[in-house]
Design goal:
The protein is α/β, with parallel strands linked by helices. The chain contains two helices and 14 strands, in the order αβββββββαβββββββ. A hairpin with a 4-residue loop joins strand 6 (79-83) and strand 7 (88-90).
Amino acid sequence: MKIKIKFFSSLFALMLSAFFYSQVIIGDSQGTAANKNNVLLEFANTNNRGIILPYVRTLPTSPTQGTILVDAVVPAQSRVKYYNGSTWVDLSGQNANLTTTLNTQTNLQESPASKAIIGSSNSTANGVLVLESNDKAMVLPIVSDVNNIPSPSPGMMVYVSKPGAKRLAVYNGERWSFWAPQ
């Protein structure tokens, strides 16, 4: 019962903050960003959690540039991808078999008009969670090491802030892939 109340309280806070175009911090009241004026969505520095991307069994027909998802069209060859405005770019670099994971999920169809928007009262972007801003960003959950995450879920994304190894990490369901600044 407490979990349901906490979930619905968090969801209500997210929707209410989106209505007022404010910043949303998930996990605590402070977050991690030093300059709150540049952030729409951020996560607490819990060091063992990440954001989970949606798994799709059919790629969107008209994706919005910047869309990030787990491409599970072929479950045994699932990969984390983002849409750059013209093509899907692979972030995983390796396949994961999500057949078992997908079998535990429902096949219910979502309402195409359902989405949470932060930063605006409306958006033409096609997504479940849409961040709308010309000058603000999302701060990913920050971890010191992906090995501190006890049970990563397929599609998990975090920012690793490890001395000498600061990078974006995505988990495709079997392996972590890392993206470091060039």
